[in-house]
Structures are given as structure tokens and as C-alpha cells.
């Protein structure tokens, strides 16, 4: 496929994401964070807004013949759309929805694949932040950096292209601290001792967007004693943001420890192969310097 054809297709997909974000934002404004009686494929209790956002996205993507299949964090299996389609889209319709009751920002995340849901097939990724305004970050193979669009009340306007500096100042890390490994504790402590400041809302989209907007830092969701494979899902959260951080000039790795030998292994997140659609992995996203620091024993 030529770059011109890819650019045309990605523009169509971005337009669908922009279109869908408007009714999703309206749903959020009318929602009080009410739960349904149902759980999703990963066992999380669904909010009414999770279900509504998923339905809006399914309907919006159905309109586009170039989409072969979609796969949502809220669904157990992928949903075929158009036989002649070329792209597969994996998405989390409403990430961080448990924060809605506290009126904090939440988001949607999209990985856009040419072919099947394998990280080396990613051609673009996007996220939507539903905050004071709707913001959309979009990265593709066709350009360096992450284009950040903001809705001005009438239309989406490109605000800036986000790029990471070699090193930043923010440190966002998740999971229950008593379940962190000694290695993770010591790395996080060293970062704070070096002057890094904690910024963690509990929403992956606003937390990672914050690092991109401030031009650097690190976000981690490590392996913990209660969740050795971490919490965040490869297809719906991790791969799209790994792609975005790499396009922004940073790095994204999985860090696994071998406690008996006291060694650690850092692997590029986009080289992991999921066995199941809902697999999770420990993950670290950041500027070059921070990722180098946490990748060393
Ligand atoms: P919810 O969708 O249950 O609010 O989880 C949000 C999330 O998947 C991601 O957005 C956060 O980074 C992460 O979980 C926070 O998890 P911890 O509360 O365990 O740090």
C-alpha cells in the first residue's frame, strides 16, 4: 500500500473516532457513574457509560468499509465488520471509567492494525481524553510525533504535535504499593530522590497524556505479587500507547524480574505476542532516559 493510500484511510478512521467522541462526551456529562449488573470479559463490573461508549463506537466503525474487524475491551471476542476491509481496530471504549464518580478525566484508546491484532501490524494509534474539553492524540507510521487535536465547540483543530524530550520530570506508577517488588520500589524511590514528582490520577489516558504534554517522564504499571502480569491489557491499553510513546520519541518496555537470579529482563512492548485478546502485561512508558534507567539491573 502506498503512503498516500494509508494517509487517506487513516484520515477516514480518525474522522470516525472524532465523530464518536462527541456523543460519548455527551453520555459522560449525563452519567453519574452508575454500574450495570454485568461484568466484561476481564471480570470488571461494567458501568452504563462503558456499555454506551462501546455501542457508539461499534455503530460508528460499522460505517467504514475499510474496517475488517473490531475488538473491544468490553467484548469477549472480535466482531467481524466488512469482509473486504483491511484494518482491525482494538479499542477500550472508556478507560478509567471508575473515576467518573469523582469527576476526573477518562479516555478512549485505539490501536489500528493493518491485518490481524499483532503489534508489528500497528499502523496508527489514538486516544481521546474527555476532560474540560475533548482532546485527541493521534500517531501513525507516516509521521514523527503525536498530533493533538482539541474540539473548540464546533470542530477539531490541531493544537500541536507532541514530542518527548530525552528526559522529563514526572513519575506515575500504579498498583498496590505493598505488592510491588523490591526492585520496583527501589527504582521508584531513586526517581523521586532524583527530583521526579508524582502525577497519578488512576486513569491511564490522562496520566500518559499528561507526560506527553509536559514533554517527558515515566508511567509504569509493574508486575505485582497479586498480579504478576500486571493489570493493563496488551491490545486495548498497552500496545496503542507503546506505539504512541515510540512515535513521540520515547520508549515502551515490559520489565520482568527473575527473583532467584536477581536479574531483570526488559523487552520492547511492541515485540510481545498476545496469546489471548485480553492478555495483560507489566508496562513502562517514558522518555528515553527514564526507560533506560528502569531497564538496568
Ligand atoms: P478502571 O477502568 O477500573 O478505572 O481502571 C483504570 C486502569 O485500567 C487504567 O486506566 C489505570 O492506569 C489503572 O487501571 C489504574 O490501576 P490502579 O488503580 O491499580 O493503579
Describe this structure in words.
This protein has 297 residues and is an alpha+beta fold. It has two domains: 159 residues, 2-Layer Sandwich (Fructose-1,6-Bisphosphatase, Chain A, domain 1); 126 residues, D-Maltodextrin-Binding Protein, domain 2, CATH 3.40.190. Helix content is 29%, strand content 31%. It has six helices and 16 strands. The strands form three sheets. The chain has an eight-stranded mixed sheet, with helices on both faces. A six-stranded mixed sheet has the order 12-11-13-16-14-15, sandwiched between helices. The protein has a two-stranded antiparallel sheet with strand order 1-2. Helix 3 links the parallel strand 11 and strand 12. It starts with a helix and ends with a helix. The site of 1,6-di-O-phosphono-alpha-D-fructofuranose has 13 residues, from loops.
Bound molecules: 1,6-di-O-phosphono-alpha-D-fructofuranose
For this structure, the CATH topology of the largest domain is: Fructose-1,6-Bisphosphatase, Chain A, domain 1
Helix content: 25-40%
Poorly predicted spans? none
Across the major sheet, the strand order is: 4-3-5-6-7-8-9-10
Radius of gyration: 18 Å
CATH class of the largest domain: Alpha Beta
Backbone shape: globular
Number of helices: 6
Q: Could you say how many structural domains there are in total?
A: 2
Helix/strand order: HEEHEEEEEEEEEHEHEHEEEH
Distance between the termini: 42 Å
CATH architecture type of the largest domain: 2-Layer Sandwich
Largest sheet: 8 strands, mixed
Q: Tell me the β content.
A: 25-35%
Mean pLDDT metric: 94
Number of strands: 16
Structural class: alpha+beta
CATH superfamily of the largest domain: Fructose-1,6-Bisphosphatase, subunit A, domain 1
